[in-house]
Amino acid sequence: MILDLTQFEKPQVYKIDDIEIHTLKGVLHRVDGPAVMAPTHQEWYTNGKLHREDGPARVFHKAPDGNVRICEWWVDGKYILQGQLDQETFNKHLHKVEK
What we know:
Layout: E1 12-16, E2 19-24, E3 27-28, E4 36-37, E5 41-43, E6 45-46, E7 49-50, E8 58-61, E9 68-75, E10 78-80, H1 87-98
Antiparallel strand pairs: 1-2, 2-3, 2-4, 4-5, 5-8, 6-7, 8-9, 9-10
């Protein structure tokens, strides 16, 4: 049996029950939205690292109403403390997520 490794060069989407996972080259990756989407949370990844520049990279929701419970900011796999964001940026992105 010959394994076709070129399939990993293209974006892949896997669905397991109600969870959707996006990968590229075998790692979590998506540029146009969260790479992991589940009823309880969303996570943004780039090249296998938690990463998002326009809002929190990890958002946990209360089920089933979807209200935001916890937001985490990550850039290039590094956790960003709330105090490291200026308050205007923090508030702007928090309000986007809550809507």
